Amino acid sequence: MADRLEVTDHIVGANRADEADRLVDDLDAKLVIENFEDLLISRTVDDVFPESRFHVIDVSGGDSVVAAQKRLAKHTFLALPVYDSKRHSAFIDRIDIMLAVLEASKHTEPGQSLLAALEKVRVSDIAGKSKRNNFKRIQSNAPLGKAIELMSEWNVRRLAVNNAEGQLVGLLTQSQVVRFIAQHIHLMVDSKKTVGSMKLGFREVLSIQASEPVRNGFELLKSGGVAGIAVLDGSKLVGSLSSSDIESVDLQAAATQLDMSFTDFMTNSGHSEIRPPVGVTQSTTLEELFVKVALTKVHRVFVIDQNSEALMGVITLTDLLKLV
Asked: How far apart are CA 121 and CA 104, in angstroms?
């Protein structure tokens, strides 16, 4: 059976882990679940992530990109719902911010600050510009299985959760769902199958060398339509770069920072060392995979050949939810 996990996330108004565990324990005491399919049908979005735990933190479409970036950083969120004059109608996420920073840097001389330029850009100008975070809604009383199905169908990383009155009460994210599944992974029929037997994530991985300018990595995220890439030293995997790393860019010195190597950027941007990438091998079981992703709270794990240590692929949260 998988390890006990915390039901917390970078979500709107996440509460303490002990409260979340009590909620899950209470549900487990009331419902006798015999198989994974029953679990997904019997649990609703609100059962698993009750609206009473949420406090909506949003941003106005008229706010500046700088204000949105500060709010994302303050709450360690990956995305915020955007409110216009009538309702929430879009998300702004770290990818949108990354695209805005890259665009502004093209028109800024080395040594100049991006702050003034980005203060002029409104949230409404860039929200959803990446085309990767479409604003989709789900009712809080919808079965969790339906939410997972819609995430895959719409290819979105999060859903806006509305109550019966149509009010936004929270966000349901891929990370939350994966962590919930990890808590109940023993119910999944294929939990003992391995990454290798399913050829899960076996594909070409976009990457840069650690010695390359970090700008190249962010540009690759943009052109490749992905949220994360591998960082190599020769052929060895030494790190990863994601759109979230744009938070480490000092807008006062961005033009210079973006031209640093990945290694220098990471070690000179508040990180004491380069974060080691999270990896699995062909022999890793699905149970082990879900638990590792849940405990490390990463959004992707790299598949490493257990003999040669060669990079074989990458498994994302989207890949995991397609298994459900």
From this structure: 10
DSSP3 helix / strand / coil % (the chain, rounded to 5): 40, 20, 40
Cβ neighbourhood burial of 92 (10 Å; 0-12, 13-18, 19+): buried
For 174, phi and psi rounded to 5 degrees?
-60, -40
Per-residue model confidence as pLDDT tens for the chain (324 residues)? 333 233 233 333 333 344 444 444 544 544 556 789 999 999 999 888 776 566 789 999 999 999 999 999 898 899 999 998 788 999 999 999 999 999 988 887 766 678 888 999 999 999 988 888 899 999 999 999 999 999 999 999 999 999 988 889 989 999 999 999 999 999 999 999 999 999 999 999 999 999 999 999 999 999 999 999 999 999 999 999 999 898 888 888 777 889 999 999 988 876 556 778 999 999 999 999 999 999 999 999 999 998 888 999 999 999 999 998
Produce one character per residue of 241-255: b if its CB has 16 or more CB atoms within 10 Å, e if not.
bbbbbbbebebeebb
Q: Count each helix (H run) and each strand (E run) in the chain, helices first.
A: 15, 12
Contacts (Cβ under 8 Å, ≥6 apart) of 106:
none
* Apex 56 CA angle, 51 and 60, nearest 5: 150
SS3 218: helix
Distances 34 to 25, 143, 275 between C-alpha atoms, Å: 16, 17, 39
